[in-house]
Amino acid sequence: MLEEFNDIFDFNQTAKRSGCTKVKHKINTDDSPPIKQRPYRISPAERRVIEDEVHKMFKADVIQQSESPWSSPVVLVKKKNGEWRFCVDYRRLNRVTKKDVYPLPRIDDALDCLAGARIFSLMDLKSGYWQIEVDDKDREKTAFVTPDGLFEFKVMPFGLCNAPATFERMMDTVLRGLKWNICLCYLDDVIVYAPDFREHQQRLRKVLKCIQDAGLALNSKKCCFGKKKLTILGHLVDAHGIYPDPEKVVAVEKFPIPQNITDVRTFLGLCSYYRRFIRNFADIAKPLHELLKKDVKFSWNLSQAMSFTTLKKLLTGDPVLGHYLPHAKTLIHSDASGYGIGAVLVQEQNGTERPIAYASRTF
């Protein structure tokens, strides 16, 4: 089957994909006058990086010379591997852009769709944003300035406030009728799921055909097919349930004792993503959240230390949630304290009660 659709993968150098024409990115700035910014000061080494990136984008046909009255500066962000990421600082443009409220899927809703699935495939779009054109009349607004000139994007760049909404709209258009039924789509990730291998082949063929017809290209290095276990949307899933992403769990386990408010906020961000796995999360995390209140001075006491240690222990103790089964007997257990409430959704599966999700909040 993959050989049949080999033209949609990036390793096929003879089949250049056209990109999706079903949706174009628009930048509605109403009657705002053009925003003009000068390039930021950069080092000679950074200038060479920018020159190289501009050359690559010209070669890929994603930018062109510009005579736009708009201009935004370039910034380079260092990756973990030491390489540079080319970015355009569109913050001022974003402030005058009318916001697109097209929704992104809720991750918990997406995970709930996987009940009953035993076989999974994951597909990733190659440079996904660059597969959507910018509307001709709005290209000038994407203009960016470097020490060597003014350029504008022909395709949708990173950094625009409405880019995620446009991308999700495009994918929903391409996969209309299939999303939520045989596949999930979260930005440039497409997940196909099925109860058995034969059904999975049929579903996968339908999704690949839609991608092919839309002119989209897949990143072969980030695609995997016919797996019994898969890490998606920050979670590990299989036929038995949903687990936190092992890599994220390691990050929690190795997190050092917070030394300031920034550390506390980062740790809570890591843990909060998996709060549905932890009973009475809000109560446990309350001492740490107290440190984030306005005008509260950072102070690491016994209550904060216990909260920190308990969250680590619970998240690194192999927590697992069952898949929600529509016809299984479902119960809600709740409790409350003087400063918070908590609940757990459970189902009777295979003769035992399995937790499906935990919820909690403080007063």
Helix/strand/pairing class, anyone?
Answer: alpha+beta
Beta-strand content: 25-35%
Number of strands: 17
Helicity range:
25-40%
Enumerate how many helices there are, as a single number: 9
The spatial strand order of the largest sheet comes to 2-8-7-3-4
Element string (H = helix, E = strand): EHEEEHHEEEEHEEHEEEEHHHHEEE
CA-CA gap between termini: 55 Å
Quick one: overall form?
globular
Mean pLDDT over the residues: 91
- Uncertain runs are none
Report the sheet with the most strands, covering strand number, pairing sense and barrel closure: 5 strands, mixed
Tell me the radius of gyration.
Answer: 24 Å
Explain what this protein looks like in three dimensions.
Helix 8 packs across helix 9. With 363 residues, this protein is α+β, with helices and mostly antiparallel strands. It is globular. The strands form five sheets. Strands 2-8-7-3-4 form a five-stranded mixed β-sheet, covered by helices on one side. The chain is built from nine helices and 17 strands.
